[in-house]
Specification:
It is built from three helices and five strands, in the order E-E-H-E-E-H-H-E. It folds into two domains: 73 residues, no CATH class; 61 residues. It is elongated, with a radius of gyration of 23 Å. The chain has a five-stranded antiparallel β-sheet, with no helix packed on it. It comes from Thalassotalea euphylliae. It holds the Pfam family RseC_MucC.
């Protein structure tokens, strides 16, 4: 996964890059007719700042391509999004089973168990990511330096 970024700060063995966070809603042809597109246009564009350790020399304002391995990003996305959903379904399923058995007499505990399962799934995914030795794969690296060319008019 590659992204264009601008170097905003240079330190001894690292640089701070800034990238524009893009909404996919602004890319669609239906952007003017869609509620999500209108919301994306109304909200201010956010900038992402990240420090990258590098031995190369850069200057402030230089454009680079930063990269995170797509396989690592997909593995994290899988855990972060799916774990709470599975926890929610398991919690709600257990609550429904208890409701059908007559152990509980109202649907509110079933709903609360669903929320608790979703929260437990979130906490499990967070703990798993925090203790994952492969987390180093998620650190962005500078893949390429973009060469700035100034266009000169041809007479």
């Amino acid at each position: 996964m590659d992204e264009k970024a601008t170097i905003v700060e240079v330190n001894n063995h690292s640089v701070v890059v800034e990238s524009q966070v893009k909404s996919t809603c602004s890319q669609c042809q239906q952007v003017d007719n869609c509620g999500s597109g209108l919301v994306a246009k109304a909200l201010p564009q956010q900038k992402l700042r990240v420090e990258i350790v590098t031995q190369e020399q850069f200057t402030v304002g230089e454009q680079v391509i930063i990269s995170i391995p797509e396989q690592a990003m997909l593995a994290v996305a899988w855990q972060v999004y799916l774990s709470p959903v599975i926890g929610l379904m398991l919690g709600a399923g257990l609550g429904q089973l208890l409701l059908l058995n007559g152990t509980i007499s109202h649907e509110l505990p079933t709903i609360m168990m669903g929320f608790a399962g979703g929260y437990a799934g979130f906490k499990w995914a967070k703990a798993r990511l925090d203790n994952n030795p492969k987390q180093q794969a998620l650190v962005p690296t500078i893949k390429q330096r973009l060469i700035s060319t100034l266009a000169t008019p041809i007479s």
